[in-house]
Write a structure and sequence with these properties.
This protein is of the alpha/beta class. 33% of the residues lie in helices and 24% in strands.
Length: 208
C-alpha cells in the first residue's frame, strides 16, 4: 500500500511536508475478504493518527476483486467507514482488469526478493511473523527512491462476527468510482472524476 500525505512536525521538523510511505500489512490470515480489508483500513488510520496526519477524505485505488472490494457487501460496509474512522468522505476507485500494476507491485516484489535472498543466506523464515520480524528489522529504511520509509504492520485479530444485508448495486461491473459520507448510502459512477461539476451532477445514488 502506498501512503502519501502531508505531515506537520515530521521527523522532528515543524514544517509541513508531502511525504510518501510504503505501508505493508503482514498476517497469517489467508482469507482475503472484506473483513480483512476493513482491518487493514483501521491499521492505516491508526498509523496516520500516530504521526499527526489528520485525514478528512480517504481515497483508495483497488482492483475489482468481488470478495475484497466490489461486491454489494464490500461496498456497503465502506459506507460506514466515515462514521467508524472519522472521515468526512471515503472514495474508492476501481481499476480495469489487469490495469492496476503500479508502485504497490514493485513494493511487494522488493519484499519477496529480499526474503528470497535472506533464505538463501541461511535465515529461517517460515511463518508470517518471521516475515514481519525480518522486514521490520532490515527493510524499514529505503536505500533509494522517493519513499521516506517502509512501515510493517502485523495483524492477527480479524473480527468476522458481523453480519450485513445490503442491496445489490445495478450493473456493478461497470462501476469505477464509489463515494460515501453517510452510513448506508453510497454514490457510484461509471468513470472516476474528482472536480468536474458536470460529472458530479450526473452521479447515480444507490441506497445500500
Amino acid at each position: 500500500m502506498i501512503n502519501r500525505h502531508a505531515v506537520a512536525e515530521y521527523d522532528g521538523t515543524d514544517e509541513t511536508n508531502i511525504i510518501s510511505e510504503l505501508f505493508y500489512t503482514i498476517s497469517p490470515d489467508v482469507t482475503h475478504d472484506h473483513f480483512f480489508v476493513t482491518r487493514v483500513q483501521e491499521a492505516i488510520k491508526s498509523h496516520l493518527d500516530s504521526i499527526g496526519c489528520a485525514v478528512s477524505r480517504m481515497i483508495e485505488y483497488t482492483d475489482g476483486c468481488s470478495s475484497q472490494y466490489k461486491s454489494k457487501t464490500c461496498m456497503g460496509v465502506c459506507s460506514y467507514l466515515c462514521e467508524k474512522l472519522g472521515y468526512s468522505q471515503f472514495e474508492r476507485n476501481y481499476f480495469e482488469t489487469s490495469h492496476a500494476k503500479g508502485p504497490q507491485d514493485a513494493a511487494g516484489g522488493l519484499l519477496k526478493r529480499q526474503l528470497d535472498v535472506a533464505v538463501m543466506r541461511g535465515n529461517s523464515i517460515q511463518t508470517a511473523h518471521d516475515v514481519y520480524k525480518f522486514a521490520a528489522e532490515n527493510l524499514t529504511e529505503p536505500k533509494s527512491g522517493i519513499y521516506s520509509r517502509r512501515i510493517f504492520h502485523y495483524i492477527t485479530d480479524i473480527d468476522r462476527s458481523a453480519t450485513y444485508s445490503f442491496k445489490a448495486v445495478p450493473q456493478n461491473r461497470k462501476v469505477h468510482q464509489m463515494t460515501t459520507s453517510r452510513p448506508g448510502k453510497i454514490t457510484v459512477r461509471d468513470q472516476s472524476c474528482y472536480t468536474c461539476d458536470n460529472c458530479l451532477a450526473g452521479m447515480t445514488s444507490i441506497n445500500t
